[in-house]
Amino acid sequence: MVIWMRSRFLFFILIGLISFLPAISFSDDYVNSYADLVEKLRPAVVNIATEHKASNNNPIERKIIKKRSNTESLFEDFNDLFQYFAPLDENMQNKNTISLGSGFIIDSSGVIVTSYHVIADSKPNEITVTLSDNRQFVVQEVKFDKKTDLAIMRIKSRDPFPYVKLGDSDKSRVGDKVLAIGNPYGFGGSVSAGIISARGRDLGIDNNQYNDFIQIDAAINKGNSGGPLFDMNGKVIGMNTAIYSPTGGGNVGIGFSIPSNSMDVVIKSLLSGREIVRGYLGIVVQKLTKEIAESLNFNSTNGALVVKIDEKGPAVKSGLEIGDIIVEFDSVTVSSYSKLVSMASNAEVGKKVKVKIYRNGKYNEFHIKIGNAKDMDNINTNEQIEAFGLTVVDLSNEGIKGKYLADKVKKGVLIIKNNGIPGLVAGDIIMKIGEHTINNISDFTRVINKVKANNTYLFYINRGSSNAFVPVKIMN
Of the candidates 145, 203, 196, which has an alpha carbon nearest to the alpha carbon of residue 169? Predict the structure, then answer.
């Protein structure tokens, strides 16, 4: 009885104290709607429709081996967010097929940014832009850069257009809230919210400037390609470009965006009419795994491991060596090898930058004069072959002969682009596949025609100063 009375007394005291406490309030970020922000941003997001003459083949059918196409997407092994709507029946094969994508206006005069593959091969007067208020405009002008899968277009009106501004993607952090607005499956003006799941994400496309993506969990689907990714200040910090979907279907919560800072340089060059110039170090780097770091007595996986140095590239006389770990580039920490590639690509050609490296337990600094990546474009595109996501060129190609190859390697094919084959990077030389020797493009084509999808084959390659066997799973 005494125990019960004491408990009852304490209960009433507790209730009394609670009545004097202030009401619990959640943060504004938790309870506020996105509606005000969306109402400001959505008018600047547009739907893009293009007309293509349908061929006798299914336009979304993937060819295993083909000559490199100027219109193909950078992201075949992931799911491109833009695809043609396939014909419903054979009678429609020769009719015009309407395809949809997204874009966003960045200037009141009507400058629109989108993905190149959304409008690839379309003439300006074939592209129609629809605004959120259902006004439609025919595109007057198109400029693009295939390497970054980016295009700008112009529409005209007597009245100023609503527009959005690019933000600083380098300031965005994992966990930040984001909004995606676009045209999934033709449903214009669709909005989805989420967070940044990762930064500097490498899709394994190739060892070039494309592998520094923002990963998000906001729902994006086919048709969102070219649409903007916003931060909570209403600034564009990315352009939605690809999704990962193991089944080939829609969103599973893993999407990828090109950072706004990577886009900014290209957009300014396109608008001014200047040639797009990209920096070039003349090295091949790879991811620094925990096992590799431990073997080199390095206590972090941040950085980029040098695996090849071009004999006539900018870095060859800098003092850099194969096996060095690059930890800083131009006084900026190298968080991953894809980040280094991105920073080098955006660096000013001719500028001498400081590179900090780790080697044999010590740190050292070297200086490299940034070269022009255009030198790599001298490879004859008529001699390129694509198979299973790899683009290779014969070693006899005049564009690479004596410039990008070690003198000891005389036979094989050089990988100049990798669209997602794990274990291989651009710059590798394939010398054998299984028991078959690869001397040239003809050997490569003959062997690849015989391999089976979803099987694993042992590739014998040259990378830098060493040779290695790499198991490669061929995907369909």
Answer: 196
Tell me the mean pLDDT per 10 residues along the chain, length 476.
Answer: 49 48 43 85 92 42 32 39 36 50 94 89 85 92 86 93 94 93 86 90 55 84 89 94 68 84 88 82 84 88 86 85 92 85 84 94 93 64 68 73 57 81 82 88 84 81 81 74
In the block, residue with structure tokens 């390659």: 461
- Give the active site residues: 117, 149, 225
346 and 408 housed in the same domain: no
Q: Do the bridges between strand 190-201 and strand 279-280 make them parallel or antiparallel, or are there none, so unpaired?
A: unpaired
Residue 84 and residue 59 in contact, taking contact as beta carbons nearer than 8 Å: yes
Cβ 210 vs Cβ 220: under 8 Å: no
DSSP conformation letters of 342-368 = HHHHHSPTT-EEEEEEEETTEEEEEEE
β-sheet bridge partners, residue 466: 463
233 shares a domain with 299: no
CB 279 within 8 A of CB 344: yes
Do residue 235 and residue 355 come from a single domain? no
- What CA–CA distance (Å, rounded) separates 373 from 282? 9
Q: Which of 412, 415, 410 is nearest to 376 (CA)?
A: 415
User: What span, in angstroms and rounded, lies between the C-alpha atoms of 257 and 166?
Assistant: 14
255, two tokens: 């999407």
pTM here is: 0.62
Structural domain contains residue 15: no
Nearest CA to 262 among 301, 208, 216, 298?
208
Query: Is residue 159 located within the same domain as residue 263?
Result: yes
User: Cβ of 253: how many Cβ atoms within 10 Å?
Assistant: 15
For residues 109 and 156, membership in a common domain is answered with yes
Looking at 327, 348, 374, which one is the last position of a domain? 374
Token pair listed for 70: 């100027």
Cβ atoms of residues 255 and 243 within 8 Å: yes
pLDDT, residue 204, reads 55
392 is in which domain, residue-wise?
379-473
Q: 217 near 197, Cβ under 8 Å?
A: yes
Same domain, 41 and 169: yes
Same domain, 78 and 157: yes
Q: Which residues of 235-251 are buried (b: 16+ CB within 10 A; e: fewer)?
A: bbbbbbbbbbbeeeeeb
Rounded Cα–Cα distance for residues 40 and 234 (Å):
8
Overall domain count for the chain? 3
